[in-house]
């Protein structure tokens, strides 16, 4: 295999697990053997193993090595995109604002920052046939001079910036799905009434390089505008 990316190693090991070449409970080859086999550095290999670990394909026992996980009927793979998971056609996206804001207690905990730091907040509303069906807030630590963050301020499109910078190979994501009651603040940005149920999906994007949080997002979506689908991971 030439010009190996660590995502290629991830896919190759996944295929071996799915095909039965690696069975549940099997111990994997030591890191030095896998590095030699794929022709990559230990650093590159460890990125691959970290992704496999996060996705539940392997588990690690300190001092013993990495093992193939047993399949679980409780594990599902969910695909989420703030537009593709809507069951309505989005006609327009309105950028409300992009601001530097002081941090709240919640953001200090979520973004793992200190109280005197600033945070970038991006707010957007998605419309379908003039109906406001989704309200999005994206929070990111502000680091002056960071070109990626400066692009975010200029264009307010974090995901496209990541694709452009090929950061999608260097991140891990975490989702939580809730149902909340719309408050007066939400009714200003969504076509709903106070007390109505609204889906809240929170997303954390973490750097695989140093485990730092790149962004924390909140997607508020009308209950009749969202569709979710997941498949069992065997």
Note the topology.
Elements: H1 6-19, H2 31-38, H3 42-54, E1 58-61, E2 65-68, E3 76-78, E4 92-102, H4 105-111, E5 118-128, E6 131-141, H5 147-155, H6 158-164, E7 171-181, H7 184-187, E8 197-207, E9 213-222, E10 230-232
Antiparallel strand pairs: 1-2, 3-10, 4-5, 5-6, 6-9, 7-8, 8-9
Helix pairs in contact: 1-3, 2-3
Description of the molecule:
The chain is α+β, with helices and mostly antiparallel strands. It contains 7 helices and 10 strands. A 6-stranded antiparallel sheet has the order 4-5-6-9-8-7, with helices on one face. The longest helix is centred in the first third of the chain and has 14 residues, at 6-19. The model has no long low-confidence stretch (mean pLDDT 84).
Oligomeric composition of the shown chains: single chain
Strand content: 25-35%
Whole-angstrom Rg: 21 Å
* Helix percent band: 25-40%
Number of helices: 7
Elements, N to C (H/E): HHHEEEEHEEHHEHEEE
Sheet with the most strands, sense and barrel status: 6 strands, antiparallel
| Inertia-based shape | globular
Strand order of the largest sheet: 4-5-6-9-8-7
Please tell me the overall pLDDT: 84
Low-pLDDT stretches are: none
Please count the beta strands (DSSP E, at least 2 residues each): 10
Instruction: Give the terminus-to-terminus CA distance.
Output: 27 Å
- Structural class, by secondary structure, is alpha+beta
